[in-house]
Specification:
Radius of gyration: 21 Å
Largest sheet: 9 strands, mixed
Oligomer: single chain
Strand content: 25-35%
Distance between the termini: 52 Å
Number of domains: 1
Length: 489
C-alpha cells in the first residue's frame, strides 16, 4: 500500500474510532431531529381559493454590541473579527395562504452565510409553540449566503477546532427570526399575486466547469386589494461574496443593495431575496477581480445589487398566479464521508444534528428536502439544503470524457420532476450542507481527502469537494425529492 493510501486510511480509521467512542449525548434521534418539521400537504391539488392572503415582516438581527463583543465574519478566512457594520443583517419573512382551508406557508430568509437545520428547528419550535399562527403547514428558513455576515455556523472562529459562533447572538437571532415569521402572519392582507421573469445577461460567472447556471431573475409580486402596498419575492443565483476577503465590516453583501433599490423605486414595497443554485461556483461576473483585490469591492457590491434591483424594477410583463399553494417536505439522512465535517461536529465547532448508524463507527447527517408550488402548474420551487451544482437542476453535466471520474452522470434531474411553467431553486434552505456535487465529477485528494484540494487529469482544482458532505449527497437529495413529488401527484 502506497503512502497516499496509508494516510487516507489512517484518517478514516481515526474518524471512525472517534465516532464509535463518543457518548450517546453527541447524537440525535430521528424523532427529535424531525419533531418540528411540518411536512405540508399529503396530496397536491389544483383547486384554487378566491384570493391570496399574504403578510411580510422584517427584523434587524445585526448584533448591537459589535464594538465591545467579538463576532467573526463568516465566509472567507477564519479568525477575522468584525470591526464595524457596513449595512445591517435582516431576517425577512413572508406568509402566504391560498384560502382553500389547507393552511398557509411561511418563507423566511436571513442575511447569513448559512444556518444549520438544528437552529432552523429551534426557530420552528418557537413559532409553533407560540400558537399564534393557526393551520400553518410549512416553515422554511434559508440564508442569503452573505460572506460578510456574522458566523452562524462555527467554521470561521479563531482556531480550526474552536467554533466561531457566538451562542448568545445565535439565541437572539433565532428568537428574532421566529418573531419575524409570526409578525408576517399578523401583517397579512388579501390580494392578488403575479410573477415575472427575465434572463440576466453578463452579470454572473461560473468558476468551475461545466459552465451551466440559471441566468433568470424571478420576481413574485403580491399586490394588496386595498392598495396599501406590495410584497416582492426575488430569486437569483450568485454567491454573496463581493466585499472580498479583506472586509472587516458586517454586511448582507449585494442583496442589501438590490433590496434598497427595489424599495426606493416602489412605494410601500417590501422585498425578500432567496438565493438560487450557486454551487459550481456561481458568483458575480468580476469575482476574480474581487479575489485578487483589483477593484473597489464595496463600490462593486453596491453597483451589482443596484443593477439587479433595476432589472427587477424593469419587469413589466407579468402573469397572474391562481390562489393555490402546494408544499411538501421530507426528512433525509445523508451518509457523510467527509470526516472533517463530522469531526468538526464532534468537536462542537458545528452543531448539525447527526445520527449514529447501526454500525457505531458511522455517522449520518440529518437534513431535509422540500418542494413548493404556487398557482395551477405556474411556479415550482425546489427547497434545497445547500449549494446545488446547477447541472443537477438543468442536466448540463460534463460528459464522461470531460468529467474527473471518466464517467457520465445518470441522474433524474430536478427540471424533469417539475410540472410547472417556471421553476427555480431556493438554495441553503432549511440547512447548509455545503456544495452538492454530481458524483461523476466528484474528486478528493488521494492522500488527504477533504483537507487539500484535488487536481484532476485536466489540472482542474476540486476545491468544492472539501466543503461537501460527500459524493452520495447529490443522489440522495434528488432521489428523495423525486419520491416526494411522485407521492403527491
Amino acid at each position: 500500500m502506497n503512502i497516499d493510501k496509508l494516510t487516507r486510511k489512517s484518517l478514516e480509521i481515526l474518524s471512525k474510532s472517534i465516532i464509535a467512542s463518543m457518548p450517546k449525548s453527541y447524537f440525535t434521534s430521528p424523532e427529535k431531529a424531525n419533531k418540528y418539521m411540518l411536512t405540508g400537504d399529503a396530496e397536491f391539488t389544483d383547486k384554487a381559493g378566491e384570493f391570496f392572503t399574504c403578510g411580510f415582516a422584517k427584523k434587524t438581527v445585526t448584533p448591537d454590541n459589535v464594538a465591545t463583543e467579538k463576532y467573526f465574519i463568516a465566509g472567507y478566512d477564519s479568525n477575522n473579527p468584525a470591526q464595524g457594520v457596513l449595512d445591517d443583517m435582516f431576517a425577512r419573512a413572508v406568509y402566504i395562504d391560498d384560502n382553500t382551508g389547507r393552511g398557509g406557508v411561511a418563507l423566511c430568509c436571513v442575511d447569513a452565510v448559512g444556518i444549520s437545520r438544528k437552529d432552523i428547528n429551534d426557530i420552528r419550535k418557537l413559532v409553533i409553540e407560540s400558537g399564534r399562527i393557526p393551520s400553518l403547514k410549512s416553515i422554511s428558513v434559508s440564508a442569503t449566503h452573505s460572506h460578510s455576515a456574522v458566523d452562524t455556523q462555527g467554521l470561521w472562529g479563531e482556531k480550526i477546532f474552536k467554533s466561531g459562533r457566538n451562542e448568545a447572538f445565535m439565541e437572539i437571532l433565532k428568537k428574532k427570526t421566529a418573531e419575524t415569521i409570526i409578525a408576517a402572519y399578523e401583517n397579512r392582507k388579501d390580494g392578488r399575486m403575479f410573477f415575472a421573469v427575465c434572463e440576466v445577461e453578463d452579470m454572473q460567472f461560473d468558476c468551475r466547469t461545466p459552465i451551466a447556471y440559471d441566468k433568470n431573475l424571478t420576481r413574485i409580486r403580491f399586490e394588496a386589494t386595498d392598495g396599501s402596498g406590495q410584497i416582492q419575492i426575488i430569486n437569483f443565483a450568485s454567491h454573496a461574496e463581493l466585499l472580498g476577503s479583506k472586509t472587516k465590516r458586517i454586511s448582507a453583501d449585494f442583496p442589501a443593495y438590490m433590496i434598497k433599490e427595489i424599495e426606493a423605486k416602489n412605494k410601500d414595497t417590501e422585498v425578500v431575496f432567496f438565493n438560487g443554485a450557486i454551487g459550481g461556483m456561481i458568483s458575480a461576473k468580476e469575482i476574480k477581480k474581487v479575489y485578487r483585490e483589483e477593484i473597489d469591492c464595496e463600490a462593486y457590491t453596491k453597483e451589482f445589487g443596484k443593477t439587479l434591483g433595476e432589472i427587477a424594477n424593469s419587469l413589466t410583463e407579468e402573469t397572474e398566479i391562481e390562489p393555490v399553494i402546494n408544499v411538501r417536505s421530507s426528512p433525509i439522512k445523508l451518509d457523510a464521508t467527509n470526516y472533517v465535517l463530522i469531526l468538526a461536529r464532534l468537536l462542537k465547532v458545528l452543531n448539525n444534528d447527526i445520527f449514529r448508524a447501526d454500525k457505531r463507527s458511522k455517522a449520518l447527517i440529518s437534513s431535509e428536502v422540500g418542494y413548493l408550488e404556487l398557482g395551477k402548474n405556474r411556479i415550482g420551487m425546489f427547497l434545497i439544503p445547500g449549494e446545488l451544482f446547477p447541472e443537477l437542476w438543468n442536466g448540463e453535466f460534463l460528459s464522461a470524457e470531460e468529467s474527473a471520474t471518466g464517467k457520465a452522470a445518470d441522474y433524474r434531474i430536478l427540471r424533469d420532476m417539475c410540472r410547472c411553467d417556471h421553476q427555480f431553486v431556493i438554495g441553503l434552505c432549511n440547512d447548509e450542507l455545503g456544495y452538492i456535487i454530481p458524483d461523476n465529477d466528484f474528486l478528493t485528494d488521494k492522500k488527504t481527502p477533504y483537507i487539500n484540494n484535488a487536481k484532476d487529469r485536466f489540472d482542474r482544482s476540486h476545491y468544492e469537494e472539501t466543503n461537501s458532505t460527500g459524493p452520495e449527497t447529490a443522489r440522495t437529495i434528488l432521489c428523495e425529492i423525486g419520491k416526494l413529488i411522485d407521492s403527491v401527484k
